[in-house]
Write a structure and sequence with these properties.
Layout (H helix, E strand, L loop, with lengths): L1 H10 L13 E5 L2 H12 L4 H15 L9 E8 L4 E7 L36 H12 L4 H14 L1 E2 L2 H14 L3 H7 L12 E2 L2 H13 L2 H4 L1 H13 L6 H6 L3 E3 L2 E5 L2 E5 L6 H12 L9 H22 L10 H4 L2 H9 L26 E7 L4 E7 L8 E3 L4 E3 L39 E4 L3 E6 L6 H13 L4 H6 L3 E2 L7 E3 L6 H9 L4 E3 L8 E6 L4 E6 L6 E4 L2
Parallel strand pairs: 16-17
Antiparallel strand pairs: 1-9, 1-20, 2-3, 2-10, 3-6, 4-5, 7-8, 8-13, 9-10, 11-12, 13-14, 14-18, 15-16, 18-19
Helix pairs in contact: 2-3, 2-5, 3-4, 3-5, 5-8, 12-13, 12-15, 12-16
Bound molecules: 6-diazenyl-5-OXO-L-norleucine.
The site of 6-diazenyl-5-OXO-L-norleucine (DON) has 16 residues, from loops.
């Protein structure tokens, strides 16, 4: 019975809502209730940016393991009337008291888990400031209107599904160490709740209401801020009110590339996503990939990934703190130089660094949604608290799960983070610095079409968006991009990771003969959400990754 009710709620979302200007809208998000929240706001007269606020906030409630008020996000926007392209960088920042050696023991060794679990792993959240900024600067409805669906989901609750439970299971042992988190997400016996049981988050509803009423001060000042600072301090963290006062989102110009006539617009640092994506595409641009044998194509894509991820680890970090050679990295001649060292018949090993670490759980923590209307106004947003259930720490009485985004810094040059990424001083910890991200919300545009896409998946985000972009370039539609079998190389560890269906036995053997190391990942990864506008026909389509439970819909 409960299952039937759950399915009824999930599948009875009306799709007959239209934009106030009679524009149809397409929304793809990782959860049916988040997509529904977006359409609810469109029906109220909201524009795509209002809908983006509603979807972001709803995801914070229905996917507390993936993103939330305690985390950060990048929103990539396009506004058609003045052709504005802008990124709202709502990435978390290191606390003022952070120190480059804060996760090292006295012998200079990384203390395992310290940057992943508990209050010391949490950076200053950007999500609340981002929601307020997006709503007030770009929306037409009030912030309270846009947060209303999320408040309702938090208050009245929603039925938890399989995916929720799978994520909870991964972190249950850690969550048990934090009584406030356990109180909210585990049952009375401190175990996993039943499938389809109702999760209510009244404290989170109150925090959302505070933000709805007081804007950014509803989170960064007053009652909520007091609770955050006090409870973080009690648990060994280093946040102060000064950190919360100082947090600002930053509007940035996107990075832009051109791959065979496709305009690629994506996020600049503090994410590595846009630069690494465009650099990879630039390396590949001189090949006629479609004319090449499938295996050669995959080999070349891997070699291009290897080089772009190498540059990621050498040069990328928060551009407000370090100097990044952006122009060089995006330059076609630079890409040609990298390409000239690629052989068609042989892998070149990433041998500068040694050691391999299991990069695990790059599944569906973190989240993405894509929205577009018939005019081409659009939002691509990737939102995160980093690892599953972030730091697993909830600040008492706030309902806010704090991120563990500090792990995205390089605690020590050459040390690998939870996604197996290595980096250096460019991404070292410093007070108020943003940690390097891989999030890659992206637009792909030709004369005929415009696509909006992105996905969670840690370090693999960039390679997933790359494979989707190459598929778009082959003329395929969103349903195909989001469900493509995936393979990945990130320079270090020097291995091609692939989903079970992504490579045939023959391909695996030949790639090995060419000098590649390969590893099948234990489970599929990513949760891509994409929408597409055919500009001439004004035709919209949308697709949600079959690996997840999201819904993609076009209003009728
Ligand atoms: O910003 C980043 O790159 C990571 N914190 C994203 C983490 C993520 O996508 C987890 N995914 N499943």
């Amino acid at each position: 019975m409960i299952k039937i009710l759950f399915l009824l709620v999930i599948f009875s979302i009306p799709v007959s809502w239209v934009h106030a200007d009679n524009q149809k809208v397409a929304i793809a998000s990782a959860h049916p209730l988040a997509t529904a929240a977006g359409f609810e706001i469109i029906a109220k007269g909201g524009n795509v940016y209002d809908a983006a606020v509603a979807v972001s906030a709803a995801l914070a409630v229905v996917e507390p393991f993936g993103s939330g008020l305690g985390g950060g996000a990048y929103w990539l926007l396009h506004r058609e009337k003045d052709k504005l392209d802008v990124v709202i960088d709502g990435r978390e920042k290191a606390p003022l008291a952070a120190d480059k050696d804060m996760y090292l023991d006295k012998n200079g060794k990384v203390i395992p888990k310290l940057s992943l679990d508990g209050a010391l792993a949490a950076a200053i959240p950007g999500m609340p400031a981002g929601l307020v900024h997006l709503s007030e600067k770009y929306g037409r409805l009030t912030l309270a209107d846009n947060l209303a669906p999320a408040v309702r989901y938090a208050k009245t609750g929603f039925a938890i599904g399989d995916r929720y439970l799978r994520n909870l299971k991964v972190r249950v042992d850690t969550i048990k160490q934090y009584p406030e988190t356990a109180r909210i997400y585990l049952n009375k016996e401190q175990n996993l709740p039943e499938l389809y049981s109702i999760l209510r988050q009244p404290d989170l509803a109150d925090t959302l209401i505070n933000i709805a009423q007081h804007g950014r001060d509803g989170f960064y000042k007053g009652e909520v801020a007091d609770k955050l600072v006090t409870s973080v301090a009690k648990a060994g963290g280093i946040w102060t009110q000064a950190d919360l006062d100082a947090y600002q989102v930053i509007e940035r110009n996107p990075v832009v590339g051109n791959y065979k006539g496709i305009k690629v617009t994506s996020v600049p640092p503090s994410s590595s996503g846009g630069i690494a994506l465009i650099e990879t595409l630039n390396i590949l641009a001189a090949y006629d990939l479609q004319a090449l044998p499938k295996l050669t194509r995959k080999h070349l894509i891997v070699e291009a990934m290897r080089r772009a991820y190498h540059d990621r680890s050498l040069y990328l970090g928060d551009g407000d703190f370090i100097s990044i050679p952006v122009e060089r990295l995006l330059n076609m001649d630079y890409a040609a130089g990298l390409r000239s060292a690629i052989r068609f018949d042989k892998a070149l090993s990433s041998d500068q660094l040694s050691g391999q670490i299991e990069s695990q759980h790059q599944g569906t923590n973190t989240t993405h949604f894509s929205i577009i209307d018939q005019e081409g106004n659009r939002v691509a947003a990737t939102l995160s608290i980093n690892f599953i259930f972030g730091s697993a720490f909830v600040a008492s009485g706030t309902g806010v799960v704090l991120n563990d985004e500090m792990d995205d810094f390089d605690s020590q040059p050459g040390a690998m983070n939870v996604y197996g990424l290595v980096g250096g001083i460019a991404n070292a910890i410093a007070p108020s610095k943003r940690m390097l991200s891989s999030m890659t919300p992206t637009f792909l545009e030709t004369d005929k079409e415009v696509a909006v896409l992105g996905t969670p998946g840690g370090s693999r985000i960039i390679s997933m968006v790359l494979l989707a972009a190459l598929n778009f370039a082959e003329g395929k539609g969103p349903e195909t991009w989001v469900n493509l079998p995936r393979f990945h190389h990130q320079f270090m560890p020097d291995v091609i990771e692939y989903e079970p269906a992504a490579l045939s036995e023959d391909e695996i053997n030949t790639l090995k003969q060419m000098g590649h190391q390969l590893k099948e990942v234990p489970r599929p990864y990513g949760d891509m959400q994409a929408v597409l506008l055919n500009k001439h026909a004004k035709f919209l389509s949308a697709a949600s990754d079959k690996r997840g439970e999201g819904t993609a819909q076009v209003s009728q």
